[in-house]
Amino acid sequence: MRLLIFGPPGSGKGTRARLISRLLKIPVITTGDMLRGEVSRETEVGLRAKAYMERGELVPDELVIELVEERLRREDCSEGFILDGFPRTLRQADALDRILGERGVTLDLVLNIVVDPEVVVERLSLRRWCPRCGAIYNLKYDPPRVDEICDECGAQLIQRSDDREEVVRRRLRVYEEQTRPILERYMERSLVREMRGDIPIEEIPREVEEVLGPYLGNHLD
Ligand code: AP5
After folding, report:
1. Cβ proximity of 29 and 84 under 8 Å
2. Domain ranges across the chain
3. Is the sign of the CA dihedral 40, 44, 49, 50 positive or negative?
4. Rounded to 5 degrees, what angle do the CA atoms 195, 153, 23 make?
5. Does 3.40.50.300 match the CATH number of domain 2-115+166-220?
């Protein structure tokens, strides 16, 4: 299954993507995590991306498209994948159409998470993230068992530098201006299913199973 998760910053894309990945046993491609990896390894891409990310702006299309194209070529994507955070501009959406077209495949589903921007600002101030395995926590809604330590791999959790309120507000503006408009293209193709981003976090697994029901088949225990 080829799935795209769409929604504003902090809407719960990563939380759902990780869950769906476990259910369907397909990889998640999170451009934000890939770029943060490039930044921490101080690669050429990372050095170029860093300032944009810290300001809450989009990294130039050509850098992100190249990363995604390379990632989609890997063997583990042959049975499907989940895109989280890509595409975010019309140019990226065109590139995705081209990449999938060259492989003779299409997207199966676009999940669009709808949430109030003020909810997002509070959530992101409380988010903690594992830089080693990508697990996502929230100090109020989904805390780790041991303070600031990842339940899944034991690494020290960090707060993302772009989760400061003024940066989050800019990311929300960028989403409205540059990213939301591309949803139209997927609506025209009847690919979009809406998900409510404001339900309690513990209800997300049930919501995901409901929406993905027809695709889960034997994957559910
Ligand atoms: P990226 O890392 O993609 O950030 P984002 O899209 O802004 O999304 P987030 O990761 O902040 O949030 P999310 O929706 O995944 O929510 P989460 O599940 O973590 O991008 C960062 C930067 O990288 C961009 O600004 C840009 O510079 C660059 N970039 C990335 N992709 C790019 C691209 N394609 N092109 C150009 N530049 C790109 O949840 C958030 C928090 O809320 C967590 O603490 C979670 O536990 C909690 N939570 C989730 N759901 C609930 C709930 N229902 N109730 C309570 N708490 C909840």
Report:
1. yes
2. 2-115+166-220, 116-159
3. positive
4. 35
5. yes
Tokens of 92: 């990226």
**Has 160 been annotated as catalytic?**
yes
Mean pLDDT of the chain: 94
Cβ(127) to ligand 1 under 6 A? yes
Give me the mean pLDDT over the 26-50 stretch: 96
> Per residue in 100-154, pLDDT tens?
999 999 999 999 999 999 999 999 999 999 999 999 999 999 999 999 999 999 9
Distance (Å) from CA 213 to ligand 1 centroid = 25
85 Cβ inside 6 Å of ligand 1? yes
Residue 101 CA to ligand 1 centre (angstroms)? 27
**What are the pLDDT digits (tens) for 161-190?**
999 999 999 999 999 999 999 999 999 999
Residue nearest to atom 23 of ligand 1 (CA): 32
Would the CB of 12 count as within 6 Å of ligand 1? yes
219 pLDDT band, cuts 50/70/90, is: low
Helical H segments across 3-116, by residue range = 13-24, 31-40, 44-55, 61-72, 90-103
**Strand partners for 138:** 127, 142
198 Cα nearest atom in ligand 1? 53
